[in-house]
Design a protein that fits this description.
CATH architecture of the largest domain: 7 Propeller
Largest sheet: 6 strands, mixed
Helix content: under 10%
Radius of gyration: 31 Å
Length: about 650
């Protein structure tokens, strides 16, 4: 029988039958200050920033001494100081109504932009000392942009930003300005027919490659916004046009800057989409996009999760955090704070307007910042004691220490307490991951959702005497959840022969750097176990016929035909793949000891015995149905190898 690859993927073998436990972090929400007009009002799109002393800085779009917005400082305990009120100069030559936030320059000064004011009332770029002395570096004119957002300081020391209006075609620009105020327009949007290069840009981020990446809210091939790359000299490439999928399932109108995370990809949000009845007029999405432009929609917001999400951050725990300006739980639907894993599992951490009269704030339009103390900080456009918005903090409590239950690292097919090198195992315990995750990578990852299992071996014989020295390492993971982790037992873990106590093997669970206690596991040369459809190691086996159909009562196997038995724990193989890597189809990997098979109590000839090509830790034994068996919908099947017998599963045998 030449077909060795199992094409009908049973949940037992693909490890989808593990228990699902979602553990959400406990959070503590605090309103630090309520804006009330003179001290500022309605902070808009700008995230807060933090200085080395732990103080936070930001802007409000209105309020202050001249009702034209402010720059403020707030201590971590909530003491607010207005550093500057805009429109202090005649005709608001110093600018008015800052929409974005600040950037702390390498020279120790703050830099930012105002959406209005200046010599042409198209906005300004300013520098401000920590004590509040402001210098206007540039006043926008219609030809170089208008209503600018926040800046970033790039690795070349210059500042880069976007203006959503103005420019050569009136649909926004990308610009550069030196710390001394020399201004250059790098690109004017809508330079291409039908604005397929985008229009109305949002913020920028500098990529690891030295280029800048951003989004436009409109334009593109489908007129619903774009993701673009632009070089420091101004060469623009459109990487993606939104609404490329049916019903705009990929989202519409990205209105926030991207972030580049530790995996090298960019993450962002769209304010709208898809075009479903439940998502009109808002909803929104979270997406991942590679530097080359391959986009994946990670999450579409539901009505209780929020709507119109803003910019994301990646926190120290590796997860992404953000705010949504609208929607949320039914009793507090004025926006949310949420956590989303890089794989797309979202949890709402806080819903605004949870307090009477929305004194906790409403409609957070800006993103978050994580302080040096690990606490998240942000602002809301409205709510608070005076309805003018708030500054808030959200403390993420550690979910705790992960643990493996004693004697709970088991063979994943039969749940016996012994495992063999290279086999598939299941560990049970308290793993505290935010959401279940199935690994689809090849080779398998050794960390998922912040969780890893580190193995180690040491000689337990007094005075030594063990035949080799084995280093520690990390186990490849198939699946993680709150209560169960499925893993491959590394090939290099030393096995003890029956009755031998030379090696002691242990696993330590680690979640986001927090180590749990070590738990030992019994590793033996052979621990055969056949997968079953019920994921309990009993009843109908994960056994296929030559047509890759399950051998059950609807497809009984007849004498002389071959079946494919899927199992684990058959020990060492030839052409052994690396731990975590799938077996090859050429050359095949055969077990170094030949197993035997009985079906209905009769010996069954074995044709192939080894690793299933394309899979990690999964063995396949091809056996022939012996003659003389009576018809039976539950004929027992058993594998034996090295003197060890597997669990018993069943197949249907026909006449």
């Amino acid at each position: 029988m030449g077909n060795l690859i199992w094409r009908k993927r049973s949940c037992a073998v693909l490890l989808l039958c593990a228990s699902t436990v979602i553990a959400s972090s406990t959070t503590t929400f605090t309103t630090l200050v309520s804006f009330a007009g003179p001290n500022g009002a309605h902070p808009l799109y700008g995230s807060l920033i933090q200085d080395a002393a732990g103080n936070l800085y930001g802007t409000t779009s209105q309020g202050g001494a001249n009702s034209a917005g402010t720059v403020f400082q707030i201590t971590a305990s909530g003491t607010l100081t207005v550093l500057y009120s805009f429109c202090t100069q005649a005709a608001c030559a110093d600018g008015s109504n800052p929409w974005g936030g600040l950037v702390l320059g390498t020279d120790g000064n703050f830099y930012g932009a105002t959406s209005g004011g200046g010599t042409s009332n198209y906005g300004t770029i300013f520098k401000m000392t920590p004590s509040g002395a402001l210098t206007t570096l540039h006043s926008f004119a219609p030809t170089d942009g208008g209503n600018p957002y926040a800046l970033i300081q790039a690795s070349d020391g210059n500042f880069y930003g976007t203006a959503p209006a103005g420019g050569a075609y009136t649909y926004g620009t990308v610009y550069r300005i030196t710390p001394g105020g020399t201004f250059t327009t790098l690109y004017s949007f809508c330079a291409q027919p039908n604005c397929i290069d985008g229009e109305v840009p949002s913020g920028l981020v500098e990529g690891a490659d030295g280029n800048f990446y951003g989004t436009t809210q409109l334009g593109g091939v489908h007129q619903q916004g774009t993701v673009f790359k632009i070089t420091p000299s101004g060469t623009l490439t459109t990487l993606y046009s939104f609404c490329a999928e049916a019903g705009c399932a990929d989202g519409m109108a990205p209105s926030a800057a991207l972030i580049q995370t530790t995996d090298g990809n960019f993450y962002g949000t769209t304010s709208y989409g898809p075009k479903a009845a439940a998502c009109l007029p808002v909803c929104g999405t979270v997406f991942e996009i590679t530097p080359a432009g391959a986009l994946t929609t990670l999450h579409t917001f539901g009505p209780d999760e929020g709507a119109a999400p803003s910019a994301l951050i990646q926190a120290a725990d590796g997860n992404l955090y953000g705010t949504a300006a609208e929607g949320g739980p039914p009793n507090n639907p004025e926006g949310t704070i949420y956590q989303i894993t890089p794989s797309g599992a979202l949890a709402v951490l806080y819903g605004f307007c949870a307090q009477p009269n929305c004194t906790d704030g409403a409609n957070p339009n800006a993103g978050l910042v994580q302080g040096s103390n690990g606490i998240l900080y942000g602002t809301t456009l409205g709510g608070g004691a005076s309805g003018d918005g708030v500054v808030f903090s959200l403390e993420l409590q550690s979910p705790g220490t992960p643990s493996i239950n004693p004697s709970s690292i088991l063979n994943a097919a039969g749940y016996a307490a012994q495992v063999a090198p290279g086999s598939i195992a299941a560990a049970f315990g308290k793993f505290l991951v935010p959401s279940p995750m199935l690994d689809t990578a090849s080779p398998l990852q050794t960390a998922m959702e912040g969780l890893s299992l580190q193995w180690s071996s040491f000689c337990a014989l007094t005075g030594g005497g063990c035949p080799e020295v084995v280093a520690s390492g990390f186990a490849p993971l198939f699946y993680v959840s709150g209560g169960q982790v499925n893993l491959q037992i590394p090939w290099q873990l030393p096995a003890n022969a029956p009755g031998q106590l030379g090696w002691q093997n242990a696993f330590v669970p680690t979640l986001n750097g927090q180590n749990g206690a070590a738990q030992t596991v019994t590793v033996v040369p052979f621990a055969p176990a056949i997968f079953a459809i019920n994921a309990q190691g009993t009843g109908q086996g994960a056994i296929l016929n030559s047509s890759n159909q399950l051998v059950d009562s609807s497809n009984p196997a007849s004498a002389g035909t071959y079946i494919q038995i899927f199992c684990t724990g058959l020990g060492q193989v030839t052409n052994q793949p690396a731990t975590g890597s799938p077996a090859l189809s050429n050359p095949l990997s055969y077990t170094t000891t030949i197993p035997t098979v009985t079906i209905g109590g009769a010996s069954a000839p074995v044709q192939f015995y080894g690793l299933a090509p394309g899979y990690v830790g999964l063995y396949q034994v091809n056996a022939q149905i012996p003659a003389g068996l009576a018809a039976n919908d539950a004929a027992p099947v058993v594998i034996s190898i090295g003197g060890v017998t597997s669990n018993t599963v069943t197949i249907a045998v026909g006449p």
